[in-house]
Design brief:
The complex is a heterodimer.
Chain A lengths: L2 E6 L3 H10 L4 E6 L2 E6 L9 H15 L3 E6 L3 E8 L2 E8 L8 H21 L6 H5 L14 H11 L22 E4 L7 H8 L1
Antiparallel strand pairs in A: 1-3, 1-4, 2-3, 2-7, 4-5, 5-6
Helix pairs in contact in A: 1-2
Chain B lengths: L4 E4 L3 H8 L1 H4 L2 E5 L2 E4 L4 H7 L3 E6 L3 E6 L5 E3 L10 H9 L7 H12 L26 E6 L3 H4 L7 E5 L5 E5 L8 H8 L5 E6 L3 E8 L2 E9 L7 H14 L6 H8 L6 H11 L12 H9 L5 E3 L4 H9 L5 H26 L5 H16 L7
Antiparallel strand pairs in B: 1-3, 1-4, 2-3, 4-5, 5-6, 7-9, 7-10, 8-9, 8-13, 10-11, 11-12
Classes of the chains: A alpha+beta, B alpha+beta.
Chain lengths: 200, 375
C-alpha cells in the first residue's frame, strides 16, 4: 500500500483553513500526536515528488509550521521536510547497499549525520538529529531489512508525529482509512477576469 | 490449542505515547504498523484511535473487534474488511476436521485485515517512546599540510588553524555556525599534502585519509557497522605510517587499529602518539576546549565562515606572484593588438561590433591582473 500523507504539528483549524484555501482537496485527520492530511491525487497518472508536494507547500506557507510529507511505494520511501527555507528530502531505497570501502562509508555516514542534524534543526528539534540519523536501512547480516514503511514510522516516532499516516494514500484508494477523517474541499477560486467583470 | 491472539493497529511507539509505558509493555510483536499484545486490546484501541481485535478458541473460534470510536462487536457482526464477511463467516462456522485452528485463525485475520506476518515472530520492532540515550558530542579535526592555513576558507566553516609540526597543521571547527563534516573538510584541504579527518566521542573514534581528491583509507573504532575488514585496517595502517613518515611503524599502527580492548578515543590518541603527533588534544579534547586552546596561541589563525565564491576569491587574491603579473601584462598587450586589428576589420564592415567589444573587455580583464599584490 502506498503512502502519500502530510503530518504536521500545526493545529487542526489552520490546517483545515489551509486546505480550503488551496487548490487541492483532501481528508484532514486530527490525531492526538498531530494532524494528518491526505491530499487528493493529481490529475495525471504519473507524478513526481515535486508535483505531489505542491499542495503540501501551499499548506506549510499558510500554517507557517514545518511539516513532513511522507511518500512510499514498493521501491522508495521519501520524507520531505517543508518549511520556510524550501523543501529537503530524505530517501531510502529498498535495495540500498552502502559503500563497501571504509573511507567512503565513513565519509557518507558523516554527511548523512550532518544532513539529518540540519533537518532536525530546521524542524525546530535540533536534539532529534542523532535519532533521525539512526533511521537507516543498511543491511545487517542475519537480520531482515527494515521495511520501507517502518522507516517512515520511525521518523514519525523521532518527531512524535502520528505514524498511522504511513500506508495511507488517496493515490490508490478513495477512502482515507483513518478514524474521524474529515473531507475538506478547496474553496472555489474566483478567476481574475470574473472579479474584473464583477467590479464593472 | 492455539494461544489467544490480540492485535491492534498501532505501533509500540503510539501505544506508549497514548496509553502509557505499561500498555506498551504488553506488546510482544510488531509488524507493518500493527502490534500483537499479550492481553485483550479493548483498553488500547480507544486511546490509540485504532482498530483492534481479539481472537481466541473456546473451543470454537471467538472473534471480538474494537472500533477506533471505542465500540465493539463480536461473532458474525465483527468489523470485517469490505468483502471479508464471507471469509469471516467461514472461519467462524465452517465445520471440517481438515480446517485446522491455525488455518481458521489465518482466515479470520485475513478477513479483518490483520497482517498474517503478525502471527509470526517480530521482524521489525519499532522503538518504543522512550528516548534513546543521547550520544556524547563528537569532536572533529583535520590534520593537513601547511597550505591548510591559506585554504581554510574553502572548507566552508568558521574554524581555527594551528601548526602542530613542520609538516602538519591542525584544522578544526570553532563551534560557531554550521559545521562541515570532517571528511568533507579534509577533502577541501588536501592538496599535494595528504589530509586526515579524525573524529572522536564517547562511543566511537575514527579517521579518513584523503590524498588529493580521493578518500583512500578509513577506520573507526566503535560506533556503527562500518565495513572494517582485516584488509582495510592493513591498508589504512600502511597509508598512515607512510604519510606520517614512519613506515617502519606500519605493523604497530595496524596492530593498534585492530585492537578492541581500548576505548575508542584512547585508541585514536595512542595512534597519533605512535605517528609522532602527541599532544594537541587528539582523541581527548572537545571542540570548545580546542577553540579555547587555539585562542591562546600566537601561531593560530582564525578563519570566519565564507561563502564558496568568497573563499575562491580569497584563495586567488593575494596569491599573485610577479610572474603572474608579467603574464597578465603580456596577454593584455597581445589582446590590445588583437582588438585594434578587430576594430579595423569591423570598421571595414567585415565583422560585428560585438567582437570588438569582447576584445576590449578581455584586454581590460588582463590589464586588471597587472595590479600589485594586495597586502
Amino acid at each position: 500500500m502506498s503512502t502519500y500523507a502530510l503530518v504536521t504539528k500545526a493545529a487542526a483549524g489552520p490546517v483545515t483553513d489551509a486546505v480550503r484555501a488551496g487548490r487541492t482537496g483532501g481528508y484532514v485527520v486530527t490525531d492526538p500526536l498531530g494532524v494528518i492530511v491526505l491530499f487528493d491525487p493529481p490529475s495525471l497518472t504519473y507524478s513526481s515528488t515535486s508535483r505531489l508536494a505542491k499542495p503540501a507547500r501551499a499548506l506549510v506557507r499558510h500554517t507557517e509550521t514545518p511539516a513532513w510529507l511522507l511518500l512510499c511505494d514498493e521501491e522508495l520511501a521519501e520524507a520531505v521536510l517543508l518549511d520556510d527555507d524550501g523543501e529537503s528530502s530524505l530517501q531510502w531505497a529498498a535495495g540500498w547497499e552502502p559503500a563497501s570501502e571504509p573511507a567512503r562509508y565513513l565519509a557518507d555516514r558523516q554527511e548523512w549525520d550532518a544532513y539529518c542534524a540540519e533537518l532536525a534543526t530546521r524542524y525546530w528539534r535540533p536534539e532529534a538529529g542523532p535519532a533521525l540519523a539512526m533511521v537507516r536501512n543498511d543491511p545487517v547480516p542475519g537480520e531482515q531489512r527494515i521495511p520501507l514503511p517502518d522507516l517512515l514510522r520511525r521518523l514519525c516516532a523521532v518527531f512524535d508525529l502520528p505514524d498511522i499516516a504511513v500506508g495511507r494514500s488517496l493515490l490508490d484508494n478513495d477512502e482515507p482509512g483513518l478514524h474521524d477523517a474529515r473531507r475538506v474541499e478547496p474553496a472555489p477560486h474566483v478567476r481574475a477576469w470574473h472579479r474584473l467583470f464583477a467590479r464593472a | 490449542m492455539i494461544e489467544p491472539f490480540f492485535a491492534v493497529r498501532a505501533t509500540p511507539h503510539r501505544i506508549a505515547r497514548l496509553c502509557g509505558p505499561a500498555a506498551a509493555s504488553a506488546v510482544i510483536a510488531s509488524y507493518d504498523g500493527w502490534s500483537r499484545l499479550d492481553r485483550d486490546p479493548g483498553e488500547v484501541g480507544g486511546p490509540t484511535r485504532a482498530f483492534a481485535c481479539a481472537l481466541s478458541f473456546e473451543p470454537g473460534l471467538r472473534v471480538v473487534t474494537y472500533s477506533p470510536d471505542g465500540s465493539s462487536a463480536s461473532g458474525l457482526d465483527a468489523a470485517a474488511l469490505p468483502g471479508g464477511a464471507g471469509l469471516l463467516r467461514r472461519a467462524l462456522t465452517h465445520s471440517d476436521p481438515r480446517y485446522t485452528e491455525r488455518r481458521r485463525l489465518a482466515d479470520a485475520c485475513h478477513a479483518l485485515g490483520v497482517p498474517i506476518g503478525l502471527l509470526a515472530a517480530p521482524t521489525s520492532p519499532i522503538p518504543a517512546a522512550s528516548a534513546p540515550p543521547a550520544p556524547s558530542p563528537t569532536t572533529g579535526v583535520v590534520l593537513a599540510g601547511p597550505s591548510a592555513r591559506a585554504d581554510a576558507g574553502l572548507a566552508g566553516q568558521s574554524a581555527w588553524t594551528v601548526p602542530v609540526s613542520p609538516q602538519w597543521t591542525l584544522y578544526f571547527w570553532d563551534g560557531e555556525g554550521r559545521q562541515t563534516p570532517t571528511a568533507n573538510a579534509a577533502l577541501a584541504l588536501a592538496g599535494r599534502h595528504p589530509a586526515v579527518a579524525c573524529w572522536w566521542s564517547g562511543e566511537a573514534a575514527g579517521f579518513v585519509v584523503v590524498h588529493g581528491a580521493k578518500r583512500i583509507a578509513g577506520h573507526q573504532w566503535g560506533g556503527g557497522p562500518a565495513p572494517i575488514t582485516p584488509e582495510s585496517t592493513a591498508a589504512a595502517g600502511r597509508v598512515l605510517a607512510a604519510d606520517f613518515g614512519v613506515p617502519d611503524q606500519a605493523l604497530a599502527v595496524i596492530g593498534l587499529l585492530r585492537r578492541t580492548d581500548l576505548a575508542p578515543p584512547d585508541a585514536l590518541a595512542s595512534l597519533f602518539a605512535l605517528l609522532g603527533l602527541p599532544g594537541a588534544g587528539l582523541g581527548r579534547a572537545t571542540t570548545a576546549s580546542l577553540a579555547a586552546w587555539a585562542a591562546t596561541l600566537p601561531a593560530a589563525v582564525h578563519t570566519a565562515r565564507m561563502t564558496t565564491m568568497a573563499a575562491i576569491r580569497s584563495e586567488f587574491a593575494g596569491a599573485r606572484a610577479l610572474w603572474q603579473r608579467l603574464l597578465n601584462g603580456a596577454v593584455a598587450v597581445a589582446m590590445l593588438l588583437a582588438t585594434a586589428a578587430l576594430t579595423l576589420v569591423w570598421h571595414g564592415g567585415g565583422i560585428s561590433g560585438w567582437w570588438v567589444l569582447l576584445g576590449a573587455l578581455t584586454t581590460l580583464s588582463y590589464a586588471w591582473g597587472l595590479r600589485p599584490r594586495r597586502s
